[in-house]
Structure to design on (243 residues):
């Protein structure tokens, strides 16, 4: 039997691996900044002014406002881990610099990081149809992953990190067994590589024309859910997230 983990180990698990790596990166940069630009000042004894100088140093290197905000959060955690009170990274001057930088960028039209716009239903359908030329199994896999991410608001990384035990195999509307059986049947009986017919658009379309006019969450089986979301043309077995 494995030993009981320490309290520090459990507390450290609160932050994800990506967060810990990000914090470690900025904390090391702060330590290097204190050693180089602050005459070797101990980072643990750094003042609020040292923190804001570090933020401005990052900005002078071309870092974006969002990146500097992440650096501020990393310093807050750094001083908390070292039991520094009051926390200089949480002082009003530190907050004012980060918020002021964001406002300055907006007021002066300074380009910040390009934000990805939400994927529309039409774009998702176009993306799904783009997989028609792939290997049937690979195309079905991509469609399944993207649809699950879109419907469940999951990140692609979360989908890729799923393990076999994370999936409900025998129950629920989207059980893996029923969906897998539907995939096998469609790949065996249908032509998954059928060409998608081009529909001439002569007027402006609305979002309702791209949506499935049925209540998707009411699917009572994996087969019904599959037919609702993945069958663009059941006769030829063409898969598509939307009709």
């Amino acid at each position: 039997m494995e030993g009981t983990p320490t309290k520090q180990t459990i507390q450290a698990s609160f932050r994800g691996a990506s967060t810990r790596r990000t914090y470690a990166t900025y904390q090391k940069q702060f330590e290097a900044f204190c050693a180089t630009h602050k005459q070797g000042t101990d980072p643990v004894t750094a003042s609020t002014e040292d923190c804001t100088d570090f933020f401005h140093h990052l900005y002078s290197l071309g870092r974006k406002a969002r990146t500097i905000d992440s650096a501020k959060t990393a310093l807050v955690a750094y001083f908390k881990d070292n039991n520094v009170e009051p926390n200089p990274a949480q002082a009003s001057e530190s907050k004012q610099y980060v918020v002021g930088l964001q406002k300055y960028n907006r007021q002066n039209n300074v380009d910040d990081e390009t934000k990805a716009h939400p994927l529309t239903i039409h774009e998702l359908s176009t993306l799904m149809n783009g997989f028609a030329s792939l290997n049937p199994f690979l195309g079905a896999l991509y469609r399944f992953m993207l649809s699950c991410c879109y419907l469940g608001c999951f990140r692609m990384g979360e989908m890729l990190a799923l393990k076999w035990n994370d999936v409900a195999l025998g129950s629920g509307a989207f059980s893996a067994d029923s969906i897998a059986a539907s995939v096998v049947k469609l790949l065996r009986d249908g032509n998954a590589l059928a060409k998608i017919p081009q529909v001439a658009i002569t007027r402006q379309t609305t979002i309702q024309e791209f949506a499935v006019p049925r209540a998707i969450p009411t699917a009572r089986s994996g087969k019904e859910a599959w037919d609702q979301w993945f069958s663009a043309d059941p006769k030829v077995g063409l898969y598509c997230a939307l009709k």
In short: The chain has two domains: 17-107, 121-239.
